[in-house]
Design brief:
The complex is a heterodimer of chains A (254) and B (182).
Chain A: H1 3-14, H2 20-32, H3 34-51, H4 61-70, H5 80-89, H6 92-99, H7 101-106, H8 110-127, E1 134-135, H9 139-145, E2 165-174, E3 177-186, E4 189-197, E5 204-211, E6 214-221, E7 224-230, H10 234-253
Chain B: H1 5-17, H2 21-32, H3 35-51, H4 61-79, H5 91-96, H6 117-125, H7 131-139, H8 145-152, H9 156-181
Classes of the chains: A alpha+beta (254), B mainly alpha (182).
């Protein structure tokens, strides 16, 4: 083997890309050639330093969100046809969904549209067996899971002691954007807490609306929009939001 | 709820391709040397990939995405035509740097001083194409030689010689900078 050949093959040796036969040939050459041996050692050293350095980049969260938004979204715009199909499915859930149609069709202003999307996302999470992407009752597991997936860091607060068990988190899509959903359980009822970014940082007090048989309580705080959606009663949902807000206040100030 | 084929396809694509977003973005940053151009290129890459996802037959998603990104970047190079050459063999650039230099002083290993990531990224950025691309695919994106060959559409032998040259150039730049900073 010539030095010219060895100078190329020693890299393949370093990268574990050589078969046993060729590896032996390169090693034999290197054993008898101080120059090539020095080059191998130097390259090994450089490879080691490079491996210890973070040279990769992380994609900005905004880029991820833009790519997500450019793909066909989970929920087509509600139409009368989809409503009828909902009826045809005949499940209790679809019947509930169908009963909310009038509101969907008649009041397509922005707030209402987003509310209907939030409720749809809640329904989807119950139907499709895609309730949770990260299963954990530990807020310190759920919170970091969202890192890099969203352009917001949803507050994840364990409310088990207050009667609402944290069960996990999920990525969802509302208004053609990726949005965080933190999932809680109250007895056998699921509460989806959706969190998205908003330009306004002012506090907007919680307000409950009902759609398709679900209660949805929404509020705004510290540049975030929150929607808590569940089939639990309005007073229980209010209790949930109160406890969440109180705990969030403690977290921020504490 | 009508779930369209488009959505199901997008969902499959999302699961298959989005986990490599950081890898694709990393390659774009090194190839284009500009954060916002890299973002645009990556977004375009994912758009094209979704469009051609039907014809994707494997084997590996990563080299496939990289191959698409390369095409996007080549279009960007063409746009910048005056400042950059496309990712093609440029014999001139290659010949300027000798494959390797005999270390006359001593056969001992020269220990490279650890540098911060920013300084090393700059040195990699300064490598000529197509050597930089091969180097990044191997050393940062962790592709095998065969996968690199697939992504760049060149024989494995070419990949090996480009990689050897890239590493020789990088090491030369590194030691030169250390000399300079002494």
């Amino acid at each position: 083997m010539t030095c010219d050949e060895a100078q190329i093959l020693l890299h393949a040796l370093l990268d574990n890309e050589l078969d046993a036969g060729h590896a032996r040939e390169v090693e034999a050459h290197i054993a008898s050639c101080p120059a090539c041996a020095a080059e191998l050692a130097a390259q090994r050293e450089m490879k080691r330093v490079l491996a210890d350095t973070k040279l990769s980049y992380s994609a900005p969260a905004g880029l991820r969100a833009r790519i997500e938004a450019s793909m066909p979204q989970a929920r087509p715009q509600p139409s009368r046809r989809s409503v009828l199909r909902g009826f045809a499915m005949g499940s209790a859930v679809s019947a509930l969904a169908a009963s909310g149609v009038v509101a969907v069709v008649l009041r397509q202003d922005d707030q209402q549209r987003i509310l209907s999307e939030v409720v749809s996302a809640h329904l989807r999470s119950l139907q499709a067996g895609h309730l949770i992407d990260v299963v954990s009752t530990d807020q310190h597991t759920v919170k970091p899971w969202f890192n890099g997936k969203l352009d917001v860091a949803p507050p994840v607060i364990d409310l088990t002691a207050q009667g609402f068990t944290l069960v996990g988190g999920r990525l969802d899509y509302v208004d053609a954007r990726a949005i965080g959903a933190v999932v809680y359980k109250r007895r056998q009822h699921i509460i989806n807490l959706f969190v998205s970014q908003t330009a306004s940082t002012e506090h907007r007090p919680p307000k409950t609306q009902t759609m398709q048989g679900f209660n949805c309580r929404r509020w705004g705080e510290r540049g975030l929009n929150f929607w808590a959606v569940s089939d639990i009663g309005g007073d229980e949902l209010t209790e949930f939001v109160d406890k969440f807000e109180a705990a969030m206040k403690v977290n921020v100030e504490g | 709820m009508p779930v369209s084929d488009d959505f199901q396809k997008a969902q499959r694509f999302r699961e298959a391709a989005l986990p490599y977003l950081d890898d694709v973005y990393t390659l774009a940053r090194y190839l284009l040397r500009d954060a916002s151009d890299a973002e645009d290129a990556v977004q375009e890459c994912y758009l094209r990939a979704l469009k051609h996802f039907d014809s994707y037959r494997g084997p590996a998603m990563k080299p496939w995405l990289f191959a698409i990104l390369r095409n996007v970047c080549n279009a960007e190079y063409a746009r910048r035509a005056h400042s950059h050459a496309a990712i093609e063999d440029t014999p001139g650039a290659a010949d300027q740097t000798p494959m390797w230099q005999e270390n006359e002083a001593s056969p001992e290993t020269e220990v490279l001083r650890s540098r911060d990531a920013g300084a090393i990224r700059k040195m990699i950025d300064a490598l000529a194409e197509p050597f930089k691309e091969t180097f990044v695919l191997r050393e940062i994106n962790n592709l095998s030689y065969r996968e690199i060959a697939e992504a760049v559409g060149a024989p494995v032998g070419t990949v090996m010689s480009r990689l050897a040259r890239a590493r020789a150039m990088l090491r030369a730049a590194w030691t030169a900078e250390e000399e300079h900073s002494k």
